Amino acid sequence: MKYYKSIAVVLGLLAASSAGALQAQTVNQNPGAYVQASVGSGVAGNTHIDASASGIGSASGDLDPKAGVFASGAWGYAFKNGFALEAEGVYVRNDISTGSLNQALGTPAKASVETYGGLVDVMYAIGKLGPVVPYAGLGVGYGQARYSLLGGSSSSDGVMWQARAGVSYPVNPKTSLDFGYRYLGTPQFKITGSGLALKAQTDLHILSVGLRYRY
What is the pTM of this model? Predict the structure, then answer.
């Protein structure tokens, strides 16, 4: 599946750093606690849907999320060896393209997915490369996905995860700009009952810019 490629990229960056591939300067000149705020957009992704109904049958398909809104806030602690632990809250909302569904219904169908939750991230600053510090990380947490269609909406809680990579640019010893990419797997949405079963899963490619402050 697509998300395996994202995990492989992040794990590859971590492995390269562990082997000393960059042989860079000391990464964390000022280890300690920090806060970070980020905004961006889920620019692409995939929504996979499986549905079945008694006496009718089953069907599955993929829909395309449109570019949407992303925001996050994090508190973390950076260690001298380049690793950092973060507690992060995220929010993301995307409208969903429903071209094939429009044809089936004979009318435009408005659909969207809204996700919020909290994750614990393990981050690694690979090494200073010119004026920037590349980093990679993985996170797992718990959240809620709310799907809306044809004026109605329903939500489901579950596990969410992400793979991250990017670069930070130190403005001064306490402040850094962050330019990041993340592959976010949102909680699986499920509805069952009265002979109907529906599952939906949205994965997003997110680009963001953030501000980090060490204190």
Answer: 0.80
